[in-house]
Amino acid sequence: MIKDIYIHIPLCSSKCLYCNFLSYRSSVKNTSIFLKGLKNEIENNKEILNPKTLYIGGGTPSILKDKDLEFFIDILSVNKLIPDNGEFTFEVNPESFKKDSILALKYISLNRISIGVQALNNKRLSFLGRAHSVNDSVNCLKYIKKINIKSISVDFIYDLPGDNPKIIEIELKKIIALSPNHISAYSLTVEKGTKLFIDRDKYSFPTEEEQIENYYKVIEVLKEYGFNQYELSNFSKSFQHRSKHNTHVWQGKDYLGFGPGSVSKIKNLRKINITTLNNYSTGNIKHKTEKLNKIQLKEEKLIVNLRRVEGMRRSFLSNENTEMLKHLEKEGFLILYKTRIKLTDKGKLLTNIIIFYLSKMI
Ligand SMILES: C[S@@+](CC[C@H](N)C(=O)[O-])C[C@H]1O[C@@H](n2cnc3c(N)ncnc32)[C@H](O)[C@@H]1O
Ligand code: SF4
Predict the structure, then answer these.
(1) 209 and 357 share a domain?
(2) Ligand 2 atom at shortest distance from the alpha carbon of 130
């Protein structure tokens, strides 16, 4: 039985300039089509009783209006998708945050909120094409703290044009001052298919060397303020605030995704829901399915395990090349322990190269 569930709400008020996640305009019509489709998709799946983690992501889950949220909560409760004693996460965007909605979700045991703050500077927000202001984020965070949601995470994007360690330190300290207990910090990637990609030549983005310095600064500042890094981009005040849902995914556990654009992993299959919104409500759901062979499964596990600060078990390498490992250690990319291998900060920046070498040993 699968114990980790993700629901993708592919609705947004507008499209951010850097984003290539699947999302549609959150019109009344699109919302109604989506919710009907979601009900069908979930009711037709019998594998999902009593999950340990439920992650509602997007898109913009907080965009659902009162009636739609009520309908959504009904789908969750009728189908027993709300974890009894587990982790229940909901993503909130500051522009669409509604106090009543958060209270309604808290009532049904919501215990983790991830807020898409991204920046606490209106110029940065406007560069990213975000639909909210700094004030919106501050108000949203203050309220969520006030009503005692156990885990509060903030997403932050850096490596914007002109970013340097000083600017990043200032931004991070503003976020820390709002007292979240978890921060996800992402280096901006210019993805194909986005407005930012079309306009990329207008800007001067940090070079690779500058990105390395910026990343070191992120790690340094967050460490100074008591945030422990437990994954390349994820930092938590204590163990209990780590994302259990994402940790399970990084551990290579199976998970089930619902909604257009969602991904599932079941044993050796990776399924991407490629249904368009129009087909979704008719129940005509399409998946792109990829069958992973033994080596691919091991490689996936290697990648997700290396991203965690606990690193990977050495016994996972069935064909260990000790000379190569010692070389990588000497170059400062990793640390070899008796039973585990962990990346150094330098190694965290160059995971692709390290994975390339380690994958030859599995
Ligand atoms: C799937 S997004 C959804 C979150 C929510 N809709 C929002 O916009 O805040 C999850 C996170 O990924 C990060 N992200 C999305 N696109 C990115 C990009 N091109 N580069 C870096 N981070 C990105 C953002 O920090 C975002 O909060
Ligand atoms: S970044 Fe978030 S809010 Fe912006 S378009 Fe993408 S999913 Fe929607």
Answers:
(1) no
(2) 4
Query: Which residue range(s) make up the domain with 334?
Result: 293-362
Here the CATH number for the domain that contains residue 16 is: 3.20.20.70
Q: Stretch 170-179: mean pLDDT, rounded?
A: 98
Closest C-alpha residue for ligand 2 atom 4: 16
Q: What percent of the chain has pLDDT over 70?
A: 99
pLDDT above 90 (res 305): no
Ligand nearest to the backbone CA of 196: 1
Å from CA of 19 to ligand 1 middle:
7
**C-alpha 272 – ligand 1 centre gap (Å):** 19
Instruction: List the single range of 8-12, 59-63, 249-253 with lowest mean pLDDT.
Output: 249-253
Same domain, residue pair 302 and 243: no
Closest ligand 1 atom, residue 23 Cα: 6
What does the pLDDT look like over 1-50, one tens digit per residue? Answer: 899 999 999 999 999 999 999 999 999 999 999 999 999 999 988 766 78
What is the mean predicted confidence (pLDDT) over 70-80?
96
Secondary structure in 3-state letters for the chain: CCCEEEEEECEECCCCCCCCCCCEECCHHHHHHHHHHHHHHHHCCCCCCCCCEEEEEECCHHHCCHHHHHHHHHHHHHCCCCCCCCEEEEEECHHHCCHHHHHHHHHCCCCEEEEEEECCCHHHHHHHCCCCCHHHHHHHHHHHHHCCCCEEEEEEEECCCCCCHHHHHHHHHHHHHCCCCEEEEEECCCCCCCHHHHCHHHCCCCCHHHHHHHHHHHHHHHHHCCCEEEECCEEECCHHHCCHHHHHHHCCCCEEEECCCCEEEECCEEEEECCCHHHHCCCCCCEEEEECCHHHHHHHHHHHHHHECCCEEHHHCCCCCHHHHHHHHHCCCEEECCCEEEECHHHHHCHHHHHHHHHHHC
Average pLDDT over residues 237-261: 94
Distance 104 CA to ligand 2 centre (A): 23
Nearest alpha carbon, ligand 2 atom 2? 59
Tell me: do 209 and 328 sit in the same domain: no
In a domain, 270, yes or no: no
Overall average pLDDT of the 332-347 stretch: 90
71-95: average pLDDT: 96
Nearest atom of ligand 2 to the alpha carbon of 19:
6
